[in-house]
């Protein structure tokens, strides 16, 4: 089951400046930063609130680390802004993806990959989801 909005992914050119904006403007001070080379991003998870299933909801700020990354490509075309939404699962993320694939939505990965903070993640194609790049997250 999908039990929460795990995060909203936001593409930016300058991660440090964007983190500072969210901290100073809104007071979001719980920040986790890491690099994910496979995804080609340096990213910050800003915790917004805890959720009913014991997890949390975040904003994920994404800065590309290389020109051929998905986020760099997206920024070049669209500029900064909302890039994806991510739903959290209460069980195995691959089981959830298989169920959604059976409804005719393309799942981008054959098996889950490593996401932020040790999570397991996969993505659904935006063209099969009314224009929204959608991620599924199983927290660590
Ligand atoms: C592309 N399109 C999008 C989109 N990216 N639509 C909505 N939201 C997006 N973010 C549209 C684009 O406008 C085109 O539509 C069409 O899809 C094909 O796009 P493209 O520019 O040719 O790009 P592709 O096909 O090379 O790549 C698109 C996909 C790619 C979605 C396949 O971005 C991908 O594999 N994304 C999953 C991985 C990812 O995004 N990682 C970064 C976050 P028209 O123009 O043809 O109509 S990593 C993360 O979230 C982590 C680590 C975490 O949460 O822990
Ligand atoms: Co994400």
UniProtKB/TrEMBL annotation:
GO process terms (BP): L-methylmalonyl-CoA metabolic process
Record Pfam families: Glyoxalase_4
GO MF entry, a single one: metal ion binding
Keywords assigned by UniProt, alphabetized: Isomerase, Metal-binding
EC number in record: 5.1.99.1
Superkingdom of the organism of origin: Bacteria
Residues of the VOC domain: 4-139
Gene3D superfamilies from the UniProt entry: 2,3-Dihydroxybiphenyl 1,2-Dioxygenase, domain 1
Family according to the record: Belongs to the methylmalonyl-CoA epimerase family.
Name of protein: Methylmalonyl-CoA epimerase
């Amino acid at each position: 089951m999908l039990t929460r909005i795990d995060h909203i992914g936001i593409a930016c050119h300058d991660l440090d400046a964007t983190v500072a904006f969210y901290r100073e403007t809104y007071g979001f001070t719980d920040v986790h930063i890491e690099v994910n080379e496979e995804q080609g991003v340096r990213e910050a998870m800003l915790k917004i609130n805890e959720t009913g299933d014991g997890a949390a909801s975040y904003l994920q700020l994404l800065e590309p680390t290389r020109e051929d990354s998905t986020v760099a490509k997206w920024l070049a075309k669209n500029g900064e802004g909302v890039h994806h939404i991510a739903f959290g699962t209460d069980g195995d993320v691959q089981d959830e993806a298989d169920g959604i694939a059976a409804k005719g939505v393309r799942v981008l990965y054959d098996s889950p990959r490593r996401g932020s903070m040790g999570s397991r993640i996969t993505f659904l194609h935006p063209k099969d989801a009314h224009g929204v790049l959608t991620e599924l997250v199983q927290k660590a």
